[in-house]
């Protein structure tokens, strides 16, 4: 059976939405209330904008104050760091100065100690040489010679061979022996491995001729440093302050007074 045909009007009614009902027309009271509500909303909006602006200004002022406070705090912190750095530098400078002073004092003390040790070594060697040169025994002149050479340099060894060697035969013939003791040593300049010294020695020589006492014999010595040791390289006898002679029996021998020099008038 064939379907029943629908009318075009019925299909249109099914497809199209429900027809809207006519809108209600608001009355006068409702319109007035709506206008008042709009005015209230506008007033509230303006108040909210003013409050927001005031808050923004306050926040801006707060930010400005905070920024200024931050700058002051930063300056104070920078100033504190600067003062701390200056104090630290001053302390470091004081410590460095103290270290330099200590090092200088230490070097000065070392130099003075070295100079003192050198002068003491010169004095000791000069005294040893002066006593050795005036201490001998005719029975063993070789030992005497070796002892003197052990304390002297090459230049004095040559001088000894020229001046003292000829006296060895006289010492042996007179059976002479001598003893000596140091009275004093004066050290002069000590520099660059060279030194000067003056010795004062008391000595006594006994022989077949009698006894000879020499008191305060001055001798000038020149020393050089060889192999880390001081050696006497030259010696000059300057004479004795006093001399006493006695014969083998102990009787004093009077020495004749020196004759006046030629051309010198004798006192009346």
TrEMBL record:
The keyword DNA-binding does not apply. It comes from the Bacteria. It is found in: Membrane. Keywords: Membrane, Transmembrane, Transmembrane helix. The chain crosses the membrane at residues 82-103. Residues 36-53 have a biased composition (Basic and acidic residues). Residues 1-66, 243-268 are annotated as: Disordered. One of its GO terms (cellular component) is membrane. Coiled coil: none annotated. Its main location: membrane. This is Mce-associated membrane protein. It comes from Planobispora longispora. The lineage of its organism: Bacteria, Bacillati, Actinomycetota, Actinomycetes, Streptosporangiales.
């Amino acid at each position: 059976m064939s379907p029943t045909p629908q009318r075009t009007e019925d299909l249109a009614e099914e497809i199209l939405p429900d027809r809207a009902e006519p809108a209600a027309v608001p009355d006068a009271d409702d319109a007035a209330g709506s206008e008042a509500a709009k005015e209230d909303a506008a007033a509230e909006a303006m108040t909210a904008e003013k409050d927001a602006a005031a808050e923004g200004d306050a926040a801006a002022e707060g930010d400005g104050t905070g920024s200024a406070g931050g700058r002051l705090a930063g300056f104070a912190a920078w100033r504190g760091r600067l003062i701390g750095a200056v104090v630290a530098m001053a302390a470091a400078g004081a410590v460095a100065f103290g270290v330099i002073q200590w090092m200088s004092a230490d070097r000065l003390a070392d130099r003075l100690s070295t100079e003192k040790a050198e002068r003491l070594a010169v004095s000791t060697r000069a005294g040893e040489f002066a006593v050795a040169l005036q201490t001998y025994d005719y029975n063993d002149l070789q030992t005497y010679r070796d002892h003197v050479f052990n304390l002297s340099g090459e230049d004095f060894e040559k001088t000894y061979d020229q001046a003292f060697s000829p006296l060895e035969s006289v010492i042996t013939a007179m059976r002479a022996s001598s003893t000596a003791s140091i009275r004093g040593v004066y050290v002069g300049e000590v520099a660059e491995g060279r030194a000067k010294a003056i010795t004062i020695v008391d000595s006594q020589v006994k022989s077949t001729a009698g006894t000879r006492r020499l008191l305060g014999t001055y001798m000038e010595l020149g020393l050089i440093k060889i192999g880390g040791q001081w050696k006497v390289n030259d010696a000059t006898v300057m004479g004795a302050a006093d001399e006493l002679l006695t014969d083998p029996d102990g009787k004093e021998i009077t020495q004749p007074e020196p004759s006046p020099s030629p051309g010198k008038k004798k006192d009346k």
